[in-house]
Amino acid sequence: MIAAYQARCQTRVDTALDNLFDAPRAELARLYQAMRYSVVNGGKRVRPLLVYAACEALGGHAERADGAACAVELIHAYSLVHDDLPSMDDDDLRRGQPTTHKAFDEACAILAGDGLQSLAFEVLADARRNPQDAETRLRMLQRLAQAAGPAGMVGGQAIDLGSIGLKLDQAALEVMHRHKTGALIEASVALGALASGNADADNLAALQGYAQAVGLAFQVQDDILDVESDTATLGKRQGADIARDKPTYPALLGLDRAKAYALELRDQALQALHRLGPDAEPLRNLARYIVERRH
């Protein structure tokens, strides 16, 4: 069931994203090529799926969420481009293809990431792509900025880089991942809810509880796959976290306990949605998919 929903949402957001990378001047062609390469070069589109599913869970139509879906994927893509740089994680492979700094060059990759980040906010502010009232668009912009910045992803990456070789306890590990991975996943759900036009305080609270659980579950499963999967399946270098001596859930808890914890988080996410009706079924299926995926 999730495969059909995923395919529909992927087609929708990919069509919208594809229209964003036409260079306005010939001199900018290579920059826009690098930006396009970084975004359309595969990907599961989990964050746009969460945007659409949250919007639809509250009775909104998918077209109301196109701008938000594009914005979160652009932020996600920018973060991957920068994370892969030699000064960060120094990765050569992403989604089964050369990373952006390998396919182009390091300077171009930095600029492509910068461009994707600013483009995300341009898209979200555009009333043609995000047909909410101005006050709601402002709330959405603020929410995404918080998730992407030093209180969210950027802060998480800083903690991550500072934790190499350290032995973090579970509380510290969760602080890092609630910033680095969870913040954008939580923002994706919140933006979808706001896009619906039906995001009252109770709905937002329920969806926040869901998003916090699936955001952490996503990272736990990523850590498990870094141990159990292979490079061809993952589309990135298997065992990279182990090789860099990064703190992970399997290293901290053991593999079996990490798997059990992922399932606990899935169940927490499902419980958070108890007040929502059948329109929230895609969100429920996404929670299951996040801990069952193999790449």
How would you explain this protein's 3D organization?
Helix content is 70%, strand content 1%. With 295 residues, the protein is mostly helical. The chain has one domain: Farnesyl Diphosphate Synthase, CATH 1.10.600.10. A two-stranded antiparallel ribbon has the order 1-2. Strand 1 and strand 2 form a beta hairpin. Helix 3 crosses helix 9.
Reported by name, the CATH topology is: Farnesyl Diphosphate Synthase
Low-pLDDT segments, ≥5 res: none
Number of domains: 1
CATH homologous superfamily label: Farnesyl Diphosphate Synthase
Measure the end-to-end span: 18 Å
> What is the mean pLDDT?
92
Indicate the proportion of strand residues.
under 5%
Question: Largest sheet, described in full?
Answer: 2 strands, antiparallel
Rg, alpha carbons: 18 Å
Strand order of the largest sheet: 1-2
Count of alpha and pi helical runs:
15
Can you tell me the overall shape? globular
Number of strands: 2
Q: Based on helices, strands and strand pairing, what is the structural class?
A: mainly alpha
- The ordered H/E elements are HHHHEEHHHHHHHHHHH
CATH architecture: Orthogonal Bundle
- Give the CATH class: Mainly Alpha
Summarize the structure.
The protein has about 300 residues and is mainly alpha-helical.
Helix and strand topology:
Elements: H1 2-18, H2 29-40, H3 46-57, H4 66-83, E1 93-94, E2 97-98, H5 100-103, H6 106-125, H7 134-148, H8 153-162, H9 170-196, H10 201-228, H11 231-234, H12 240-243, H13 249-253, H14 255-272, H15 281-292
Antiparallel strand pairs: 1-2
Helix pairs in contact: 1-3, 1-4, 2-6, 3-4, 3-9, 3-15, 4-6, 4-9, 7-9, 8-9, 9-10, 10-14, 10-15, 14-15
